[in-house]
Amino acid sequence: MLNDFLNNLRRPEGLPDFDNPPLDEVAITLVFSQMLDFSKEWVADFQKKVINEFPKIEVKNSVVIHMIEDLSTQPNLPVTFNIPMGQNRYWLISEDDATLVQLQHDSFIFNWRRRDKEYPHFEAILPKFWTSLEKYLELVEEKGYANLVLRQVQVEYINWIPEDMLGKTDVLKAGKYLSLNNLGEITLPDDETFLARYSVRNDSGVYARLYLQSQSALRDEPMLKDGRSYGTQTILSFRVPCNRNVEENWLFSTLSEGRNIIVKSFTELTSELGHKIWGKK
Q1: Which of 232, 207, 205 is nearest to 218 (CA)?
Q2: Tens digit of pLDDT for each residue in 14-41?
Q3: CA distances (Å), 220 to each of 116, 119, 215, 217, 251, in order?
Q4: Burial of 53 (0-12, 13-18, 19+ CB in 10 A)
Q5: What angle in degrees, to the nearest 10, is found between the helix axes of 122-142 and 40-50?
Q6: pTM of the predicted protein model
Q7: For residue 131, what is the enclosing H or E element?
């Protein structure tokens, strides 16, 4: 039944869409309450299960994933994203480098990254995510950890907009209000950063939060003449705190709802000029 559902996923009618979206990466993150006794042997056993899909492996520093502890109070802490720390995090990477699974002691992360191919849309990512997660949960049970409890579920969309595509004050609608006239001529900021956090509600009240981070940035681009690209990176992160087992129907409903909210919010926050360049349908 679940496989039939995944194989017949359709993009919701009326959801904003673009011919050439600036989407650079999608991440689906599951954080668990249990701290697993993670090791290289675990990763080797997992890779045996997914060797055809993820033949390459890299070791990175683990990250501290920002957790929502209490939805009942008004948020008053700075917006934070994942923070590197000392323990190991393992990347299992596809042959084309476009998809990867990240494993660490408390979380399972599935990524799509822009490489040679265009974004295949969320409906194509979810079945691959689920196949990898099923094999991970199978391994966890084999290692003696039954019934993992989810502590937080999140979906993240990372966009990269090079400055030669769109100026930094032209990405978000709010950017047009940043020019100054009192410096001798009309002056735009050299760099800019936006941080925002939104409460997401349903009939029962606040159940999730949406985070926005948009900032001027430099990144390595080996194919470019000077090896670097200047532009704007925007991150929209939908996060749902929870305390429940991995239940397929709830999980896919939550992930799909998060994607829909992110896409609608990105469209609402970004400029008409950007929509024109990205080919809004």
Answers
A1: 232
A2: 999 999 999 999 999 999 987 777 778 8
A3: 17, 21, 16, 10, 35
A4: middle
A5: 130
A6: 0.90
A7: helix 122-142
